[in-house]
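Board notes, transcribed. Complex of a protein with pyridoxal-5'-phosphate.
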Amino acid sequence: MSAFDTPDAQTCGTILTIDLGALVANWRDLQARAGTEAAAVVKANAYGLGIEPTVTALAAAGCRSFFVAHLSEGVRARQVAPDATIYILNGLLPGSGGSYAAHDLSPVLGSVEEVREWAAFHASGANLRPAALHVDTGMNRLGLSVGEGLALAHETNSTLAAAGIGLVMSHFSSSEDEADPANTRQMAAFAALVAALPGIPASLKNSSGHFLNACPSYQLTRPGYALYGGNPTPGQPNPMRPVVGLTSRILQLREVEAGTPVGYNGRWTARRRSRLATICLGYADGYPRNASGTDSSAGGSAIVGGVMCPFVGTVSMDLVILDVTDAPATSAKRGDPVTLIGGALDLEAVGAGAKTIGYEILTSLGRRHARRYVGV
Ligand SMILES: *Cc1c(COP(=O)(O)O)cnc(C)c1O
């Protein structure tokens, strides 16, 4: 038992298992590949896996820098990582400087306005950690333009120094696709900016960036998805260790004749005499409704007794129906476990079955599952 386990891990039907040892191994692996310091991106509650347990494990392994999206996530990370540098990716909301100071957090400043507001807050005498400067090199989402960054870099009366900028960073839009020419354009634009800011550490690589040819690591990398076992090289074998497992249990079984409609609105019809298992997991648990299996389109799957069994009918709020006709009857009984994430059902396969990406599967894994933290 880990201190972070939810108390009902023994009795709840659905159990999310998080291997913190594999998480730490993935972080070490990426840091070794980078050949420089690797941070950990733990936004969105550590991609759904829990900020406190993941940050605790990574900080104990030597991770010194964390990135979250919201200030409230930074406050949670700070409680378990008192010495780390914690960057808030979504930047400075107007007037929020005091909250950063109170929790010793570092904003990722994403516009000239934010840089100026932070510099002014600095001048008020607050004792602040260095902030990061986010420059947009092609995503067009957050960040100063490269032109604005260069203009600030060439100022004689340096606003960047006044703002205590300790890191310059940019974010890839397509690094999982080595062939996308956006990667080289972004690398070139970022290199020009880094050259104009001598002495300021830089950061560019997200998870997939670690696997891009000819991409410099600079002084810090920012992996997220790959830490949690997601494949940073889609279409190729996954170099990372799996971190997440999701199992549920069979509540009921029934036999239906060919032609029987199943689930809400009868959107799946049995084509043969079938054995169906209803399991305790649904969209309220964060499993996307887009994983429904209908007469016109296949959806998600679960592994029952070693056999891949398709979802049939729409995913309900609390339930999914599986076609277990081909599973061994000895492993498809009331109460038996089924695997929803694990083995051949890796995050990529689960994402594809739900017509989304593994990132969204991870981050939607609801709070409703019992959680078991292992590997520590
Ligand atoms: C989410 C995020 C990351 C991590 O991306 P992964 O693809 O999950 O590795 C890194 N940098 C920024 C700015 C991000 O928003």
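The longest strand covers residues 244-256. The chain is about 25% helix and 20% strand.
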